[in-house]
Amino acid sequence: MMHTSRLLFSLALVLLFSGLQAQDKKTAPKPATQDSVIVKTERYGFRVGVDLFKLSRSFYEKDYKGLELVGDYRFSKNYFLAGELGNENKTVNDERLNFTTKGTYFRVGFDYNLYENWLDMENKVYVGMRYGVSTFSQTLNSYLVYNRNDYFGETATILSGKKFNGLSAQWVEVVAGVNAKVFNNFYVGFSLRASKLMSNKKPENFDNLYIPGFHRTYDGDFGVGFNYTVSYFFPIYKTKKEIVVKKKK
After folding, report:
1. What is the Cα–Cα distance from 3 to 20, expressed in whole angstroms?
2. Cβ atoms within 10 A of the Cβ of 97, count?
3. In this predicted structure, what is the pLDDT of residue 106?
4. Alpha-carbon distance values, 13 to 25, 85, 129, 135 (Å)
5. Which domains does the chain have, with CATH numbers?
6. What burial class does residue 134 get, using C-beta atoms within 10 Å of its C-beta: 0-12 exposed, 13-18 middle, 19+ buried?
7. Listed residue (129, 103, 66, 123) closest to 203, CA to CA
8. DSSP structure string for 145-161
9. CA within 20 to 30 Å of 152's CA: 29, 121, 162, 232, which one?
10. What is the mean pLDDT of residues 197-210?
11. Distance between CA atoms of 218 and 111, rounded to whole angstroms?
12. How far apart are the first and last CA of the chain?
């Protein structure tokens, strides 16, 4: 009997000790995971470049010559001051009208970068706005008088050569585009823009059918544009920020 009691008592101690160990394992705090810290560098400066679309167009289109310089300056994490400066010389030869437009223009505004760069990436996926101003001249080279009665055939082309100076236009536009770093400080990008004409100084007995920087006005006060750019970044200063990356449990 005493032997049986000792056996039961020993078994009870073993079970109690095992239960306490299991309880300790459940309630014991788990060791903390060690997070890693990565240093992210942010560079600030200005970028200048050229519109390859207008530059190449000057070679394959005989009635067009143009050049546009582009640039932006990063002054905060997501905001950039941006602008374009250009010159265009275009001759339009329509069915009844031939004219030449020459002038310069500039646009100024801002871009907002929607893309969250990781580490040292400096890409832009942006939207923005511009205010554009153009000063130019129009030359009416030749035209045909509309003849409602074509019984005697079409009228002959009338050579004019009349020039209209001191013309100007102003507009606002919405921009959306991409700018990606390809190597070192070189970037390539493209943008699409929709414009709304705000003011338009027209010559007498004629119309501004093409405005440098705004493009054609056949569709009224609205216009569209496109550019394809290559640019170089000039860094001025940089900041560093520590990013904590938590390890997965």
Report:
1. 26
2. 16
3. 97
4. 18, 90, 80, 100
5. 2-245 (2.40.160.20)
6. buried
7. 103
8. ---S--TT-PPPPEEEE
9. 162
10. 87
11. 28
12. 54
- Of 87, 101, 96, the C-alpha closest to 164 is 101
Amino acid identity of residue 116, one-letter, is E
How high is the pLDDT of residue 155? 64
Residue 18 one-letter amino acid: S
**What pLDDT was estimated at residue 11?**
43
Chain-centre distance for alpha carbon 194: 13
Q: Is 217 within 8 Å of 198 (Cβ atoms)? A: no
Q: What is the mean pLDDT of the chain?
A: 82
State pTM to two decimals. Answer: 0.77
Question: Amino acid letter at 236?
Answer: I
Under the banding of pLDDT at 50, 70 and 90, the label for residue 245 is low
| Rounded distance between C-alpha atoms, residue 42 and residue 77, angstroms | 8
Q: Is 140 within 8 Å of 160 (Cβ atoms)?
A: yes
pLDDT in tens, 118-163: 877 889 999 999 999 999 999 999 877 766 666 555 666 777 778 9
Burial of 103 (0-12, 13-18, 19+ CB in 10 A): buried
Return the structure tokens found at 158. Answer: 């009338």
**Cα→Cα distances 21→10, 17, 25, 26, 98, Å:** 17, 6, 6, 9, 97
